[in-house]
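Per reviewer request, we include the raw input and output of the structure prediction for the construct analysed in the revised manuscript.
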Amino acid sequence: MFKFKSDAPARTAELARRLAGVLRPGTVICLDGDLGAGKTLFVQNLAASLGVQGEVTSPTFNLMNVYEDGRLPLVHFDLYRLEQEYELDEIGFYDYAENPDGLVLIEWAEKFPECLPEDHIALEIQRTDVENERVLVFRLAGSVLQDVYKEMEKLCQF
C-alpha cells in the first residue's frame, strides 16, 4: 500500500495524467470513495492523457462507457446504481473485467468485492477535514500488475 496526498483537484488531475503513461493493456483499477471524492475527475484526466477525445463522464446511468480512440481502449464502469450481483452479468462486466484488452476503471467497486478480478489495483480516494484535500490510497491485489503498481508508486513522489 502507498498513499498520495492531494491538496487540490488540479493536483489529483496531474497525478492521473502522470499515471496514464505507465498503464498497459490488462490493467484494472477499482476506484472507491464517497460521492464527490474525485473518482470521475481522476478518470477524466487519465482518459485525456491516454488520448481519449470528447467528454468523459461518469456512467452512473449508462453503467458503462467504452472509449476506443485513445492509446489504450478504456472501459469505465460505475456500479453505484447496481444492487444485485446478477446485474453485473447483464451489463457484460465480466467480459470486460476478466480479460481486458485495454484499461478497465471501475467506480464503486466496493459494492461487489467478491466479483472483482483477482488482479487489480485498488484506489480509494478519501476526504480529509481540509477543504479540497484528498488522500489517495493505492493497493495491489494479485501479482500480475506488480510492475505497473511499482511504477505508479514512483510517480506519486512529486
